[in-house]
């Protein structure tokens, strides 16, 4: 029964200063709405930017690297085995560039339950012939269907069908930057020259766009079969093995394991793209910091309103305490007022934030570098709404607790005598 009366008293005090209460609730509402919208937009942007590279990057890449020999002749000499030997201008060993026994390695990887899929790759250094000009470039030979399934190859096609690489002999999908440099169109025949001086004619069946100009001006794509023909190597030649794991977070440790087991160089995605993860983390931290700052500012607004309410309602507090309500009851009244402002502001805030996110999500985004993105990216993660509500409740509780402490210490005798 007493609890019911406390709620009624809190409601009466709220209505006594309803304009200030409304302003405080609106402050919380807009803070929550901006917090949710800002976080959703920044995370959507992070996913877009990271996806441009991370979607197309294998979780682990196996390859043969050209490195100096670890065992130099002087290290094999008994005469100098206890000495510190300093050797300069070490030359790399004459090792094969391709991966030996690649098919057996791919079969072994496919049987690993940690692996989603494996795709072979081969790169060829070429020159795109454009009149009297030779433009430096790289043709990446792919297992086209696997590349599409594992690394979203088709999502970055600005024009054309990726399956034409397999269906049409001697075909190529040009990087958008390359196509612009040599003025190539779909169905055109272009000439390339290999680093060994061999010339080939290839049919253009599509354009590829990563969104990064420096890559699109150099790299193009062909089938593995066509690239082997360009390099003049056997049908079993594989330069890289690309691996996609079920759990991306295990890539660094798994790469070390594969490197030792297969005696190959292994590079994990986190190591290859550390700068992108750092950029995403920094942007997320900034977004959270700005959003939390907004909520703190709204908390100060509630604190000020409750402080003013206490000064105006000193006689009411004194009468309550004189009629049997103790300090704990007074605390509950003012904390209830604060939490009611916070909860109502938080609920309306997440609704407004969702509406604002939808509005942003419909704004046209026309960027030639990202042809598949037509509107501004938004992430509708439930976690942003949950964090906003929880933080709003915590902030409004703290904003109400300090004035409630002050109200609970009011001496009714002093107040009544003053009146």
Summed up, the domain count is: 2
> From the alpha-carbon coordinates, what is the Rg to the nearest angstrom?
33 Å
Separate helix tally: 15
What is the helix/strand order? HHEHEEHEHEHEEHEHEHEHHHHHH
Helical content class: 40-55%
Q: Report the average pLDDT across residues.
A: 79
First-to-last CA distance: 30 Å
Question: Low-confidence spans: pLDDT under 50, at least 5 residues?
Answer: none
Largest sheet: 10 strands, mixed
Number of strands: 10
- Gross morphology is elongated
Relative strand content = 15-25%
Structural class: alpha+beta
Description:
By secondary structure, the chain is of the alpha+beta class. It folds into 2 domains: 2-54 and 276-418, no CATH class; 60-64 and 96-272, no CATH class. 54% of the residues lie in helices and 17% in strands. It has helices at residues 2-16, 18-54, 102-110, 144-151, 164-167, 176-182, 213-216, 224-231, 251-262, 269-272, 274-312, 314-322, 327-361, 382-408, 412-418, and strands at 60-63, 115-130, 133-142, 157-160, 171-175, 189-194, 199-208, 219-223, 240-245, 265-268. Strands 1, 2, 3, 4, 5, 6, 7, 8, 9 and 10 form a 10-stranded mixed sheet that branches. Helix 12 packs across helix 15 (412-418). It is elongated, with a radius of gyration of 33 Å.
